[in-house]
Amino acid sequence: MRKPIAESARSSAPRSLPAPRVPRRWRLRVPRLGIGWRLGLGLAAVTTVLMLGEGLATRTTREALEAVRSMQNEHEPLANSANAVLEKLLAYDRAVDEDLQAHNPDEFRAMTEAGDALEAAVAAYFGASPPPPVTASGIGRLRLQLTRHIASARQLASRAAQRAQWVAGRQAALNQVYQRITSAGGSGLAINGTQVVARRSLAELEEAFNAVRGDVATPAVTARREREFTAVLNAHAAEFESSPGRAWLGLVRQDFAQAARQRREIERYDAQSGPQWHSLREDSAALTLGVQQQLQMPARRGLLQAAQHAATAAEGAEHTLRNTAAAVLGLVLLVSLLLAVSISVPVRRLTAATRRLAGGDRGARAPRGGSAEIDQLAESFNTMADRIAHAEAELRAHQAELERHVAERTQQLHHLAHHDPLTQLPNRRKLSAHLASALARAGTRQRLALLFVDVDNFKSINDTLGHSFGDRVLQNIAERLHAATGATGLLARLGGDEFTVLLENVQSSEEVESRAAQIVATLQEPLIVDGRVLTTSASVGASLYPDHAADAEGLLRAADVALFRAKELGRNRFALYSPALYEAAALRFRLEQSLRRAVEAGDLLLMYQPQVALHGFESTCVEALLRWRKSDGRIASAAEFINVAEKTGLIHDLTDWILHTAAATASAWRVAGWHRAGVAINVSAPQFFESDFVEHVARTLEATGLPPSALELEITETVFQTGPATVDSLRQLRALGVAIALDDFGIGYSSLTSLEQLPISRVKLDRLLIAAVDTNPRSAAIVRSIVALCHGLGLQVVAEGVERAAQLEFLSHCGPITVQGFLLGHPVEAHAAAAEAQAASARARLTLEAAAQLPRREAGESLVFVGSSGRRRAT
């Protein structure tokens, strides 16, 4: 254990030399000098010289010891205090940076403790006993600057806490606005992964609000988005005052104004705090340099000067002893030898050690030995050298610790830059670098595979169980993928629920398919997270090098295309890339872009195909069919692009346009003289998810002046799988007077109970069901039975796809029925629809009259089929 400085100083105090022996009396009479007297005088002279030399040596030795003692009691504590001030200053600046970067006002405790420690170190330095030699005004200013530095940092921390409150307040205000918009029906309802928007005004308001609340942007962009939100709010103010109400509109404006004010406060703080933080860091660097120059370096110079003073005193003692030895060298060889052994040699060693120490050799030590005084001086010198070496070792240790922290932080940042923080898996950057290296290693002799893994329906987990639970699910999935991948592959997370597996040295595509199937099977196993048992699945897309691509970008694109194919096939499966998949994906993308341009350019149009009621040969209703006029003049049917419209969300805008255009056109026909004109339009399933779809239909009818009975909405059986909300919307439409037709009946689900339970008014038999009624007895029997069933339930029947006269004749014997097909009329534009409807009625009458004029045998046996009894029956 190290001794205290005071105790070490006491233990190194010089011991007083024994007083020289003085003769009791002097002879008054000088005898004749003889050999004995000469020898006696010589001895007396030697004795006198020795006594004088001893006195001088003792005095210089004491001066050296006093210098060492002064160094131990004054300079070394001051140096330690200066080191403590520098250490606490650096610790305080680190605490300020770490706590303020966290932006959490509750975590400023470390900075406060570091500031208190720094203040204590400054007070200890300037309150040292004896006090430091503060003779220059610079040190006083340094102390004042340290105090101001601590106060400035605490003030900035307080303002940072205020900023955090502003941020929280702004977020709360924005959340309040979002809740009000959502409660008014702005967000719509998400079903089967399809977003259904509310009223257009609320949808525009929500879109503008999402832009305000979206990704982090510049202050100018945020301010512009707030103005755009306010402009949308003002543009629809009259509508909002009507519904949801004036109070709602006032609360939205009040909350949004509060959020805008707090955003301006935050921007004002950021504009002001940036220079202040920069000034604080500059002050920190200047203070660090000032402490080193004005506190630490003077203390070190004091230590060095004290050591030099001790060395000077030792050198003086050496010179004194050397002169004494020279004076008595010719008198007594023994005395000279003793003086050389007991004084000169130890002093030389001490001098050499002092010079080495002053020259920078911190391992220099004076050997023990010689007289007691020189031995104590060597001990004190060694203690001083130990203290100096210890101080420098501590400084080097602090520097090494600082370098170690910098290295650790650099390593952490490097890890964060190349790994996902949630799963600790390599991220996209790490994957890109590893993939490039793997391609370089593979060359042309080896194959490698890239697998994209996407967790199916992961969004529902986040929506129902929360994002924190979803994060833990992703961590468990990552562990399972890591186990399934093994040591031969690289597993990375690209973001969200997307993972990537890189397999090197692949032998065949069958091996890749086997690994992909293993991943799919692994993720199908039940997963236990926080006590919940979950069943997950995943879609996997795979690509091979060099079979499918020759570079990293091509492999990634090919795997993504294969993943899209796996999702198209129904998810929970894998797909291997093929050029046909890429061509299909590229075709879908081009079709989507072309369709968006067509919507913007107005290249879509409606064509109308008449429906003829055979029991009265009257055509009062036409079906509106969506068409696309291509740039080359070709008219494309809806079958070529309707699936793309549904997947991209364009179907909502298209349905609104179709509804308004068809209703306005039918209303114009009635004004022009076709008084019973009606129109039927197709409505997709996602349209019924909109909360105000019924109100939208009512507003359209009111705006166009078309009676509700003149509008028929055609829906498919898939609409009925969406739940009670859809059925409720259908009942409201029927209550409004709008007719509902079940389209494409006879294919798909064909649930007979839906005919009785659902509020429909008409059933449309699919063209595939009508195609063989004149050639296939089974088809004829099925159609006849379905028509009879519908009539028994009070439902009208429309037969689609009538293209032959034999089909028309068969259907005319099935009771009151309406037909539609190319035999009677083709889809035409709006200006020719009335004439085409009259022509279709005339064609139906003429076709049936021509069939009635045939011989009775041919007319009666035009359809012959064999019943269950084997007898031939004719219709």
Shape, per Cα inertia axes: elongated
Helical amount: 55-70%
Within the largest sheet, what's the order of strands?
10-11-13-14-15-16-17-18
Characterize the biggest β-sheet.
Answer: 8 strands, mixed, barrel
Give the assembly state of these chains. single chain
How many DSSP-defined strands?
Answer: 20
State the helix count: 25
The radius of gyration computed from the alpha-carbon positions, rounded to a whole number of angstroms, is 50 Å
Compute the average pLDDT: 77
Category from helices, strands and their pairing = alpha/beta
Task: Outline the structure in words.
- The structure is a single chain.
- The protein is an alpha/beta fold.
- 63% of the residues lie in helices and 12% in strands.
- The chain is built from 25 helices and 20 strands.
- It has an eight-stranded mixed beta barrel with strand order 10-11-13-14-15-16-17-18, surrounded by five helices. Strands 4-5-3-8-9 form a five-stranded mixed β-sheet, sandwiched between helices.
- α2 packs antiparallel against α3 and α8 runs parallel beside α9.
